[in-house]
Amino acid sequence: MTVDVLIVGGGPVGLTARVLLERWGVRALLVEKRVELSPFPRSRLVNVRSMEIFRQLGLADTIVAGAFAAEYGRIRFRDTLLGRDFASAAMIGVNAPVPESPVIGVVTSQDRLEPTLLEAADAADAQVRFGAEVVGLAEETESVVARLVDRRSGEETRVRARYVLAADGANSTVRELLGIPTAGPGALGHVTTVVFDADLTGWSAGQPAGVYATAHGSFLPLYPEGGWAWIAPTPDDPERADWSGLVSNALGPDGHGVQADVLRVQHWTTTAYVAERFRHGRILLAGDAAHALPPAGGLGMNVGIADVHNLCWKLAGVLRGWAGAGLLESYETERQPVAQLNLRQAVANAKLMFQAQDRRREQLRNGAGADVPDQVELPWSERYFAQLGLALGISYRSGAVLVDGSTAPQGSLQALPHASPDALPQASPHAPPQLSDPDSDPDYTPTAEPGHRMPHLWLTPGRSTLDSFGEWFTLLTPDPGSWEQQADPSSLAPLRVEGLPGEYADLCGLRPGGALLVRPDGHIGARWTDRPDGDSAVRRALAGISRSTPLPT
């Protein structure tokens, strides 16, 4: 069997890649060594940027329909689940709409998200094989040959693909076969997830949350209609553990009368690393195969979804001939720094969670009875999930972003509307966020500088600038008529010209004749403050971004 792209891994990242490639008309095969989708909740937070991507794919409404209401976008800290809050923090962009985006993030379990993604692509053009494990890879000049073993029958088959996209998780077989090392703390601890049913509405209905963090583990409501998960360190003898009893004990003194009906138990390891390379010839790593992040803050799956949103249009361009193979070099250049940034933040988040619980334990040690305060001042002052900078403010610097004399110089833009004046960082608003320590300011300041995600602005009621992007480049300009001739139909790269309301020109650093060239992933690839001389500026920019001089593929 021969395909354009072999996707290894059937989690949210691999499934999203399959949908994206199918929209580009790329023939893909997804293989997953499990015999079915995972029945465990696993990742829980779909952030605002991921929801923007799903809106682009027409999936946002379906995902929202199966998710929790916005008020569940909160983490509550309690001594026990059945106790009172001693601290609470909102998940920014999830607990309420933000003006910087046309969508809102959601709390939903991964086992509810994955079926939606699986059904979103045409099975004829983007096939899926469950129970198929990659056991060998051989790179050739123009393709990769993968050896697959059917885990049910033991039969071995071969698939030839022009490229392999590995999204096979933290214990990536593909990464191991390639011998790609990782850098970072590595394994942080062994954890167990217990999925159970119990009637806990009396303690949770009035104070909804996506996560209840307690001294005895974290409790997570799984679905709007019911179901719970308890996540705690794995006990010394998990094979003999009384999971129902452990859950009841973790509920606290008032929970001994609660019957916990245990449905599933999963043991896993919290890991933290970034792969030293995201590419090996025609094989590219994405998601947890490229970077494993601690779960605190809900960053991991969302970074992986953004990985493939960045990568799939580049693969499509190379495979369809309007981009050179060199374009793929920009994938690692752009995404590896993002992974490292998110790793630092996820580790900081974990430390902040422990600090909040340590402060509570100190209160309990130093107080007694009525002398124990009801509240703990959070070490991050309600900023634990205030991470719009990580979700929306990432800036790319690579050969696929043009920042030269043909575009507006750096620092020439004003901040776009809707950024809170109190949240403006002291550093340049055009610099990518630097969150190497928990005191860094992660707030998002919208900007239309090349390399950044195009800010959300309403073009018409209900239609955002983000809705004009798809399987094409987009030229946003206040003067579409004069730029139409720049959209050379002989250019191989797909391009659409979209009118930008004149009132947004100054805000985007444009004069009335200027334009922004936006890549298919929504990041600005080039900018002209005014209309350039001649009719070849866009064609040259597209060639520069896509490196469209054909290279061997």
C-alpha termini separation: 19 Å
Structural class, judged by helices and strands? alpha+beta
- What share of the residues does DSSP label as strand, in percent? 25-35%
How many separate helices?
12
Could you name the ranges where pLDDT drops below 50 across 5 or more consecutive residues?
A: 405-441, 548-553
| Structure summary, number of beta strands | 24
What is the mean predicted local confidence, pLDDT? Answer: 85
Instruction: Output the radius of gyration.
Output: 24 Å
Molecular structure report:
The protein has 553 residues and is of the alpha+beta class. The protein is built from twelve helices and 24 strands. Strands 1, 2, 7, 8, 9, 10, 16 and 17 form an eight-stranded mixed beta sheet that branches. Helix 1 runs parallel beside helix 4, helix 1 runs parallel beside helix 8 and helix 8 packs antiparallel against helix 9. The longest helix has 38 residues. The protein starts with a strand and ends in a 7-residue tail after the last helix. The C terminus is likely disordered.
